[in-house]
Design brief:
8-stranded parallel beta barrel, 37% helix, 10 helices, alpha/beta
């Protein structure tokens, strides 16, 4: 497993990270047995994953509790990233939220504490002041952001030392390539990619847009007429499934599973430090981690780019996966 450094930190992260949201079940994940969650986390570590991503919002701390329960004996050998809610970005609230995350993970110091989504109502400068103080006090080793656009990252870089930006990025969602990713590359802010196989779309689980369950058809790929969407756009269902068909063909010709091809493409992109992949049981985790050893040729990467360019252009430069009125600034 390759490991990549994060600037502003004293640690490295594994190229494949374990995303610890689905293991709590609920939301649109469905029921989940704790035994499967524990085994998934342990299988991730045994397979070479040393980077685990969680958040308070993942089961109101339940995800953090599971990580502690499954991996307490190897905590000194792993990196855990967690997040605080936007409503906790005020100076005093940041400090309280940090203490709560320390308690949930049963640790004395957090590796990477992230701002989960931007909050335009609270000045970032005060939030970052609290982060800097927590770092000086030894409560956190580093801090980062999630779902941040160029303007907010500029503020972060002028007022603090962010280690990373966690954003959705995959072959079907390349919107960050317009502005966010180039800024991150130019300013040495590594990207942590979530939703790398687009909730199963890039694993070939669905044959058509109509086959996608409503709770997975919430993004701007899908029509505004879908019951759970938050945007007012026509969507890009035809372009999305044309891209999926093309990716499937390229995967077949390369002798790879679609999900491995898709994850390997992400790992080959400039600025990407780690790809966050979920897994609800040990077998899923072991299958996903195989992508870490896949190296794509320049020709295959070119084919994948060409196959998904029309969808990229159709969806445009708004990096908000779910809303027309972008929360990114």
């Amino acid at each position: 497993m390759q490991h990549n450094p994060l600037p502003q930190t004293d640690f490295q992260v594994s190229a494949i990270a374990f995303g610890a949201w689905a293991i709590v079940g609920g939301f649109n994940w469905g029921p989940q047995e704790e035994k499967d969650s524990i085994e998934a986390l342990q299988a991730a570590y045994e397979s070479g994953i040393t980077f685990f991503d969680t958040a308070e919002l993942y089961g109101d701390g339940a995800s953090e509790n599971l990580i502690d329960k499954a991996l307490s004996e190897v905590k000194d050998k792993i990196i855990i990233a967690t997040k605080i809610k936007p409503e906790d970005f005020a100076y005093g609230d940041v400090r309280k939220a940090c203490e709560q995350r320390l308690k949930a993970l049963r640790t004395e110091r957090l590796d990477l504490l992230q701002l989960h989504w931007p909050n335009p109502d609270i000045p970032l400068e005060k939030t970052l002041q609290a982060f800097e103080e927590l770092k000086e006090e030894g409560k956190i080793r580093a801090y980062g952001v999630s779902n941040f656009g160029v303007k907010d990252m500029e503020t972060c870089l002028s007022a603090g030392h962010i280690a990373s930006n966690q954003v959705p990025y995959n072959l079907l969602w390349r919107a960050i390539e317009y502005e966010v990713l180039p800024f991150c590359v130019d300013h040495n802010v590594p990207v942590l990619c979530y939703s790398p196989i687009m909730q199963g779309l890039l694993a070939g689980k669905f044959s058509s847009a109509d086959a996608v369950p409503e709770d997975r058809a919430r993004t701007r790929h899908f029509s505004k007429d879908r019951p759970q969407v938050r945007h007012q756009e026509a969507g890009a269902e035809a372009e999305t499934f044309a891209a999926i068909d093309a990716i499937r063909q390229i995967a077949t010709e390369a002798g790879l599973a679609m999900e491995h091809l898709s994850l390997a493409w992400l790992l080959a992109q400039p600025g990407v430090a780690s790809v966050i992949v979920g897994g609800r049981n040990a077998a899923q985790v072991r299958k996903n981690v195989q992508a870490a050893s896949v190296r794509l040729s320049e020709e295959v990467i070119r084919q994948l780019n060409e196959a998904t360019d029309p969808l990229k252009k159709k969806l445009g430069a708004n990096p908000d996966l779910w809303q027309s009125n972008s929360r990114y600034r």
